[in-house]
Amino acid sequence: MSIDAVDLGAGAKSVAFVYVSDRERALGFYRDTLGFAVHSSDNYGDYLSIPGSLLRLTVIPDMKPHPHPVVGFEVSDVVSVVKAFRERGVVMDTFEGMDQDDLGIWHAPDGRSKLAFFKDADGNALMLTQA
């Protein structure tokens, strides 16, 4: 049995949620370092405009970051984005045995896909992907 998709309406956008412990520090990273514009804010957090959707930063004071990526961003040129992020102070994560290049980018054996990993100011794992 298949379920038909529900029409959410022409203005519907997906929203990714990232939990943070310090609102100003998180905004400094996502807005100022990564360059995402604030879409709207309320007493509990902020919505940021990211290409094609929204990113919700919700404040939870005792939040503990998850070790695996909570949000990924598909980009057309991961090398350019990694270089731009590094110029803004973002450190790419490297993992033993993953055979990443000098920029911290992993290249799939098929030569097409590329991945890079980094953390936000709260230690949440984030990912860049180029398919």
TrEMBL record:
InterPro entries: Glyas_Bleomycin-R_OHBP_Dase (IPR029068), Glyas_Fos-R_dOase_dom (IPR004360), VOC_core (IPR037523). This is VOC family protein. It comes from Tahibacter amnicola. It holds the Pfam family Glyoxalase. It comes from the Bacteria. Residues 11-131 form the VOC domain.
